Amino acid sequence: MDQIINNLQQFWEYTGFANATFQHILMICIGIGFLAMGIIKEWEPLLLVPIGFGIIIGNIPLYPGFSVGIYEEGSVLNILYHGVKNGWYPPLIFLGIGAMTDFSSLISNPKLLLIGAAAQLGIFAAYSASLLLGFEANAAGAIGIIGGADGPTAIFLSSRLAPDLLGAIAVSAYSYMALVPLIQPPIMRLLTTKKERLIRMKSPRVVTKMEKIIFPVVGLLLTAFIVPSGLPLLGMLFFGNILKESGVTRRLAETARGPLIDVVTILIGLTVGCSTQADKFLQLDSVLIFALGAFSFIIATAGGVLFVKILNLFLKPGNKINPLIGNAGVSAVPDSARVSELIGVQYDRTNHLLMHAMGPNVAGVIGSAVAAGILLGFLS
After folding, report:
1. pLDDT at 35
2. For the whole model, what pTM was predicted?
């Protein structure tokens, strides 16, 4: 009888009920909140559902020594997490993004590249603010990249500069990507007049097939020679794009933008969520990271909109740019471009901005990768 009681007692000690703390319960509730945002609100469900479920998995209370947790060497989750920790997954995501991106709007109107560059102001503003709050330079650089609204780039940079903060930075970056439709519209309305919101832009010219093929080659050479440290992201982005545009590697392009990016998205979302274990995530630094991420994202959005307003001062009346596409300079593709479209049609139902907004949007993808390369270059 004593043996049975001892066995039952030992079994109880191994259960999650016996090892649960308030912190575990809080993180599980946060994970459920992410699931609700993804499933009910449909805010970036392809990201928030894996991350939310990963948060729940990562915060199941475990008895030490079972070798199943994400930070326990040799566990399945730990092996999958190597792709995040060592920066393998982000370049594969960029390969898929390149294979599904049409750069025509940017090629037809190269001025839009400047908007994508201006929106990276948020990255360097958050970097400066992080330094003022006492973060080390490497950590500040990793936190700043949140302003690009680019989860893969945030993971790539933080895995090299601040691996201890990777979970908080990645979850913050993906959260603000999902909240684009909530955060950006008030800023866009605040910084523009009704007259500016009604500006009609010229239809973009037709881009030739040869231009589309040349662009990824020229784009890679220009960006990689300027920022060689960003090559893993930029190289894969432009490689994916030439697979798409060449017309002779259709199967490879379809694999990159379909099964490959889907599998990597599952792995990156699940493992990032699992990495938010209560004992590592519920710290003051995590709160500061989320606050700095919000600051960075707001500055990035405002920077893009204000830059368009300034640029318009030097453009002829028929060539002016609608400032509502300035928000698309962040690299949340295509969500921020959709926000430009939605706000634009609220003021003029016939003024469709989506096609124009995709220019700065894809420029933002390039811009965030270049910014990450710059930070990596002088901080590593």
Report:
1. 95
2. 0.92
At a CB cut-off of 8 Å and minimum separation 6, what does 50 contact? 265, 266, 268, 269, 270, 273
* 277 closest CA partner among 27, 19, 16, 7: 27
Gyration radius of the chain's alpha carbons: 22
Q: Residue 27: name the closest of 286, 271, 276 by CA.
A: 276
Q: Who contacts 315 (Cβ-Cβ below 8 Å, separation ≥6)?
A: 321
DSSP string, 17-59: HHH--HHHHHHHHHHHHHHHHHHTS-SSHHHHHHHHHHHHHHT
Are 152 and 89 spatial neighbours (Cβ–Cβ below 8 Å)? yes
Residue type, 372: A
Over the stretch 258-292, which tens digit does the pLDDT of each residue have?
A: 999 999 999 999 999 999 888 888 888 998 999 99
Q: For 195-217, what is each residue's pLDDT tens digit? A: 999 999 988 889 999 999 999 99
DSSP assignment, residue 64? T
Distance CA 82, CA 201 (A): 46
At position 332, the amino acid (one-letter code) is: A
What residues does each domain of the chain span? Answer: 87-379
Amino acid at position 45, single letter: P
Residue 67 DSSP one-character state:
S
Which pLDDT score, from 0 to 100, does residue 14 have? Answer: 78
Q: Please, is 193 exposed, middle or buried when counting C-beta atoms within 10 Å of its C-beta (0-12, 13-18, 19+)?
A: exposed
Q: Which parts of the chain register pLDDT below 50?
A: none
What are the structure tokens assigned to 200, written together?
């009609």
